[in-house]
Amino acid sequence: xxxxxxxxxxxxxxxxxxxxxxxxxxxxxxxxxxxxxxxxxxxxxxxxxxxxxxxxxxxxxxxxxxxxxxxxxxxxxxxxxxxxxxxxxxxxxxxxxxxxxxxxxxxxxxxxxxxxxxxxxxxxxxxxxxxxxxxxxxxxxxxxxxxxxxxxxxxxxxxxxxxxxxxxxxxxxxxxxxxxxxxxxxxxxxxxxxxxxxxxxxxxxxxxxxxxxxxxxxxxxxxxxxxxxxxxxxxxxxxxxxxxxxxxxxxxxxxxxxxxxxxxxxxxxxxxxxxxxxxxxxxxxxxxxxxxxxxxxxxxxxxxxxxxxxxxxxxxxxxxxxxxxxxxxxxxxxxxxxxxxxxxxxxxxxxxxxxxxxxxxxxxxxxxxxxxxxx
Length: 375
Ligand SMILES: Nc1ncnc2c1ncn2[C@@H]1O[C@H](COP(=O)(O)OP(=O)(O)O)[C@@H](O)[C@H]1O
Ligand SMILES: [Mg+2]
Prior knowledge:
Largest sheet: 9 strands, mixed
Number of strands: 14
Bound molecules: adenosine-5'-diphosphate, magnesium ion
């Protein structure tokens, strides 16, 4: 029997807030999401009260987790600034808050990077991004992570795609992360990778209508409240697109670089350009562009057809002065292995596709050498 929203609220009513009333009466809770026993909610308070609320957040999480029928519980604490101290917008407006609301009211000197604490034990966090969905971002992220693993690096994979987390499917992971004594999530080990996904906490097809601060808080927890151990590279599968949610993420995650996935069609190249502009804005170096579904390779005869007019991404990369990392064919094996939770670098390690992902990995590793060696 799965837990109901009401049962969660009843449990939360027993938690006292710093305002002297029950947590449920403090006017700070988001709607409670319950999917298959996985509970998610957030507490939104003013930024200067946040410290006092951390224990409440932890208490809320433990009372919910103790309920029968709860598989996992995540309570995020989101700090919002008082109206007037930052650009504000109507509370009732749905969707993601503009990135500007997450900036300090008076920008301190230095780049946004200055506010992003490094994650202890992780030498380099890199983003895999795309201007739009469906271009093969997740497929590339997973296989690239495996390619980096094959180069002897210690690699983690974080699925931060709140709109469509697909890493559970791509890796065939069905279990949920456990907590250690300090209540940190232990990433799932699969194919030699440490894996975390927002999909372990919510369903893949749950329409994500979280507000910006909730998104950030969930991502921050998945970055920092996880026992990643020592990693050379953490590959982050970003939400597709270049809107406020993506910008906020790029701004708040200590990224050493970003990789942009594009298909050869013009439209997605335009989207890729937007991606480049976004990372430039937040001073994250673009490690390069990958052209996915670059050409069609017949699974029967191996003949290559450039059905989308291939090569656009390479030209675009040259024009924009960013590295071109490689082209991945549109091939049946890449799709079927992904859908079966057994990515092509694992299932066909000696095949041509694995070699391509390893070559892209090598180029990425070479660009990160400074960071990896310093760790
Ligand atoms: N190079 C490729 N060849 C064949 N199919 C691919 C390739 N790259 C991705 N796909 C398939 O395309 C679909 C979308 O890929 P996915 O990685 O989920 O995209 P995104 O994360 O950008 O939404 C999936 O079914 C995936 O298996
Ligand atoms: Mg995806």
